[in-house]
Amino acid sequence: MIESQLCQLVGIKYPIFQGGMAWIADANLAAAVSEGGGLGIIAAMNANAQWLRQEIRKIRTLTQKPFGVNVMLMSPFVEEVAQVVIEEKVPVVTTGAGNPSKYMKAWNQAGIRVIPVVPSVNMARLAERSGAAAVIAEGGESGGHIGELTTMALVPQVRDSVSIPVIAAGGIADGRGVAAAMMLGACGVQLGTRFLSATECGIHPNYKNKVITAKDLDTIVTGRRLGHPVRQLKNKFSRRYAKEEYNMAISDEELEAMGSGALRRAVVEGDEENGCFLAGQIAAMVHKEQPAAQIIEEIFDEAQAVLKEAGKWVK
Amino acid sequence: MIESQLCQLVGIKYPIFQGGMAWIADANLAAAVSEGGGLGIIAAMNANAQWLRQEIRKIRTLTQKPFGVNVMLMSPFVEEVAQVVIEEKVPVVTTGAGNPSKYMKAWNQAGIRVIPVVPSVNMARLAERSGAAAVIAEGGESGGHIGELTTMALVPQVRDSVSIPVIAAGGIADGRGVAAAMMLGACGVQLGTRFLSATECGIHPNYKNKVITAKDLDTIVTGRRLGHPVRQLKNKFSRRYAKEEYNMAISDEELEAMGSGALRRAVVEGDEENGCFLAGQIAAMVHKEQPAAQIIEEIFDEAQAVLKEAGKWVK
Question: Mean pLDDT for chain B?
């Protein structure tokens, strides 16, 4: 067993969160991760209160274990979603895409452990000051919306800047990544891409297949021109988007419109040409479909072995 | 002591290389690093045979310990430089910016340990096949010319793809970074940015000061439009360059010309407005000027402590 304060903090066996991936992280996937001893997380993404409430109630039929909801702060439904997590007594809330200060007091009063995803030292400090129970320091090698700093550079800097627990995310695929994160000062990890291959992950088979067959250089970052960089797998859609970013005949609005619906086309339709297949750089380290519980066990068996051996470097 | 095969391979006390930074890594800095127990490296950059020979002869007056030369494969003088390292019996050659296969045979015959910097699995495999003694897997959080993959994602993938030793570079500032690199499968590290603050590093005081005062988000990547991304500190020059990359009224040639001489302006003149101050994301973790030997000792004292404690995570 890996002994981490994160396990006590949120009541889990293994110090691992499953990332709150929009369109992907639903009650089924989250329940499988929680049942496997990690913290499963439902992504509220741009969904409304009704959808989220339904998923929360569904996960409670699938597991008795703790779970979380990821609140995307730029969602048009963020106000009602922020209320639902209180009403439904969600044990853990992670937040993305902004500063959750506005909701912290109400969430903390409701007994929710709030754990923001942060891309920088300042955001980590702000989270701590406003009452976060921990922070997830996410490096830009991860999939989806990304920050500038990488996990190697970000985690120790965040560790040195706050007193609350730090969870590392981005670029972690296996037990070696978990062990490395711990050396950098994290007390746990959040993984997204690896869980895309979980049997319980409901993405289109084409998506899963693209992840499983990806090579090291198969991701690309688009959206830098609009200031919202997003990491995804290379395909016709992402290559074209990347090219058009340097085409000034294309307005920012047209560029924005190009991305519209692309995630849905990937996740639901498996449209390999026109879909946006979000994935992190470690997609190349994901080799097969397996149950979420098995993924977690495999990762921590390896992490334990690697950490036990670490002392052997020292003579 | 940290026991690593890298120490035996190149005859050093601590498994650490100093990056071959153009305009920066000269005989003085390299000698200080080698004297401190690491591997100091002279950057051949775009210099000619005469300059390099002079630096090699100079380092031999400063230290008896092993050192290296970094051969920049895109240099106009690469042919003569490749010959000089043989004639001068340089013990270690690292290579950057390309595929060194062409020179490998002659270098290996001369008894040189060749250790290419690689940004991907394929380049690592190619290096091994053509006779490299090890590879340096460098993540894109590092300063200067960068690849796409980050250290967390790249190192384990390279480790799984080759049998020769893997050295991790990018995003490493202290002993925690060294320990993390080892968990990922590296047997040593290469650091550039941290050595910018070495007393023996001859960069302009303004450059050193910019590194020492940098914050986490103070680096920026320019050059993506031309396909040669370069990480540097934010200043008037780099912000303007980054902006002009999206200005299609500026031709690729004009953009290229904007960068000309900018590194010299930073290193030699300390021109804070118009210089290109290369640095990695961990600049924010560099807090003071100290002798290279002290930097190395501090890093490995910490690495040793962190690695010794690693087993305590496991119960």
Answer: 96
